[in-house]
Design brief:
With about 80 residues, the protein is mainly α. It is about 80% helix and about 0% strand.
Length: about 80
């Protein structure tokens, strides 16, 4: 199933990664979120797009989940700045 999803011509890697960021933030699973953020950024997602995703998480899953997600995102963004 996973390989079929990865080869789906209707959604590119960047889009799928942003969806995965949304799901991980919504569920509050922070270590998987960290990995999905790295994948999304490496696939071409911008910091602004990640922040927008987290704003949507706030609206639909609650501010606490979005805040936790943003804390992880800020750490991942800082890692990128150090490289």
């Amino acid at each position: 199933m996973r390989s079929k999803l990865q080869k789906n011509p209707h959604a590119d890697t960047r889009t799928r990664a942003l969806v995965s960021v949304t799901v991980a933030a919504t569920l509050g699973v922070l270590e998987p979120l960290r990995g999905q953020l790295r994948i999304a950024l490496n696939a071409g997602a911008t910091k602004e797009e990640v922040v927008e995703v987290l704003l949507q998480v706030a609206a639909y899953a609650g501010v606490a989940r979005a805040f936790d997600g943003y804390q992880v995102a800020a750490q991942v963004f800082a890692e990128g700045a150090e490289r």
